Amino acid sequence: MATTDSGDAANGLVIGHANGHTNGHSNGQATPQGLSIIIVGAGIGGLMAAICLRQEGHRVTLLEQSRFANEVGAAVHMAPNANGLLRRVGIFVEKFGANKMERMTEYDEKSTSKREIELGEANKLWQHPWHLVHRIHLHEELKRRATSPDEAGTPTPVLRTRSRVADVDTAAGVVVLESGERLEADVISVTRAKIPGGDIKTKPSGKSAFRFLVSREAAQANAKTAKFASKNGELIMWFGADRRVIMYPCDDNRQLNFVCVHPREETQVDNVADWNTGGNKAKLQEVYRGFDSDLLALLDLAEAGSLKVWELLDMDVLPSWTNGRLALLGDAAHPFLPHQGQGAGCAIEDATALAAVLHKGVQAADVAERLQLYQDIRYVRANKIQEFSRKAGRDLDDRAGLDMMEYTNYNFGHDEWDNAVDVVRKWEWKRKPHLYWRMPVSFGPFPGPRQTFEGLPRTATQSTFVTASVKFKTSRTMLQNLFPSVSFRFKSPGTVAHASFSQTTLNGMEWLGGGGYRHLGLYIHGVEYVTKSGAVLDGTFLPLLFENLTDPIVSGREELGMPKLYCSIDVWRRAASYRIQAGWEGASFGSIVLKDLVEADPASTKGTIGGEDDQGLFAYKYIPRVGERGCADVEHATFVPHAEEARVVSSRVVRMFETSKASVSFEALDWESLPTLHHVVSRLAEIPIYEVIGAKVVEGLGPIPPKDIRPIRRFITTHAADGTTGFSDAVPEEAPFKTLLDGVQFALCYASNTFPAQLSDDADLDVYKNYMTNLPGINIDTGSVLRVVDMQPGMLAPMHRTVSLDYGVVLEGEVELMLDSGAKRLMRRGDISIQRGTNHTWRNTSETSWARMLYVLLPAQPLLFNGRALEDNTEETIPGHK
């Protein structure tokens, strides 16, 4: 008979559509039923895959061509790398007869001792034990765990025996049985024939093996053989020049498992038979006639019913393990020679990696890409161990220079679940380039005020705020000393400037689990920043922002470059007064008091600090270089548009109270009282207040209004075969809006990739249908784009440029078009913009209603300016879109 190390059925895996329908809703959310998976072959790898995949919530069907009536009886190694994976799913092999591997002894053919290794200390290197287990016992437990309704994971996998596969339709995800029955699935584990390069066949390795069991009690009862069976957990190897005998115990040390490797021609067997081909004792004795007589006596104790001849087959490395929704695992992907005892273990590793890749929530549309990832995870390791096994099986004369410990360390020092989960995590993170990363990076991207851990945008729908601010006249010459760069300047040349101290209390913050925090900052108004290109931005400079909670301090410093520090902030609010006190560890250093507050019309405030009509907040980011004092690793100005912060904190003002009676005071204290803040507070205490211009308390609350503009329908005309006209149903009428990371919604309503467009045979429709699932960039340099953009209330888009000719029309609301020079125009419904490659941004001027614009983008020749070609800059500025 012919087989490989694990003796496993050749496993593959098909992932298809349950009941013939796509798994997952049209909005991209995974269905709770999981994927439908067919596993062809219910050996060790197939059953382990069924266990792991059911625990991920998938529906599994196992197809086994045999009746399981004559399951193979022998022992297998459960080395630490595989044993830990079994334990992870709750299978402890020692509970059904496995014994530990405790020592190794090596003899020559005359039973002269060559090496003895006690493994007690060596095995402490590994986090899981090394066991020797009876194959039948392992297989029965795997089958029970895979198919029992009482085990973890629903629904229970279905095991169908006597189900021989006749064909597989790779495109449709359909398995055809010999009976003619057709089964559909999202994932199919199949044999090699349906995989590119799968015509590679197994080939003789030049060796065959007897495999059988001997009762340890019988060996101990025989005076000549007792010495070989005296120690528990002992693996013994007898080496001849071109043959060897391997013996180790299993079944709680009650049985001795033998693998007797020898030249193939001495026990020629039928290649088409299975690996249970019977052997006989006379032939066994003949093959090892030159070995020690005591060993021959031990071989003569072979249980006749278990004595089999096994041709050892090898196979060249397959170029691929996957084809669309089809994948291989176990022997189907990498048949092993038995010399490392890793065949079953690697099949278990394959199954585990597959479950990590196809974790709960994966959509059917992503299966093919994820199966390729499964191959990437497993391919090198499995093929390397396969090559190790070849080398370990060489005859004595060819074994010079082999380092068996190198093999052992590589084999055992690996946990495929830990490895695969980490690879999948990083792969999924890489597919979301706009995730926020900050220290500590060992744990992945961080959730924060602008997005969830998964990268979904937050919209501050239930947040509330109360802001108390005091705006005052002060010294421009003193405030400008707080500018960290000469690129900052005041708009006015006068020596009087305006600034505000403002304190906000936030609550209902989704990103803080519904909680909130307080912040207190100095805001310097009327500031301009001159970019390197000479463009001038208009805003408010924030030299300092105190906060009383770690999470927003860290996220604001690292994600936005905000100059945040910690202090305690206490607030006392009464009917007509508002008092703020700032301190550090019991030392109070700041006080702001507003008295005689009177309710006013909230429509009179813009909701921004100081009520300034500017674009946003300037700050200055500085990160020191490690090990080099006084040197910056990162140093630059930052700009946060008001609309960006409005996505974190609701900016809908609902109540406002005003007063002219307000006071601000700061006390510098000393280094003992403020050991980390004295230098900061002393500068705040120096700021003169010539006059209070105004003071107010503003209340705002969510939610942001829902989308108040109707869906868009498209009516696409076409021609029938006879030339008559009609409307095409090739794509849905409703435009497919996609929400970007910043909350803006894009709808690619139509696109072409040639100019002029190719209308014959609906070629342009085919192009657009492809773009619907494989989104193009903002513009297409060989064709045209028709796009609709819906902007949430208060939205300010990042500054961006496309080198294209863009026609923009406001369909709903009012939108402000702003250029990087500071020039701006207000566009009302029906107004048109002709955008000619300039750097620009859009702002929805309404704080309560959505706005909608339609764009037609056409390719343009390179745009030259002073001999330099301008380039697109949308990759970083339009998050979540190519």
Automatic annotation (TrEMBL):
Q: Which CDD domains match?
A: cupin_BLL6423-like (cd02231)
Query: What InterPro entries has UniProt attached to this entry?
Result: Acetoacetate_decarboxylase, ADC_dom_sf, Cupin_2, FAD-bd, FAD-dep_Monooxygenase_BioMet, FAD/NAD-bd_sf, RmlC-like_jellyroll, RmlC_Cupin_sf
For this UniProt entry, the molecular function terms from Gene Ontology, in alphabetical order, are: FAD binding; lyase activity; monooxygenase activity
This protein's UniProt keywords: FAD, Flavoprotein, Monooxygenase, Oxidoreductase
Report the Pfam families cross-referenced here: ADC (PF06314), Cupin_2 (PF07883), FAD_binding_3 (PF01494), NAD_binding_8 (PF13450)
Q: Which residues form the FAD-binding domain?
A: 298-388
What range(s) does the Cupin type-2 domain occupy?
788-856
Q: Which family does it belong to?
A: Belongs to the paxM FAD-dependent monooxygenase family.
| This protein's name | FAD-binding domain containing protein
Organismal lineage: Eukaryota, Fungi, Dikarya, Ascomycota, Pezizomycotina
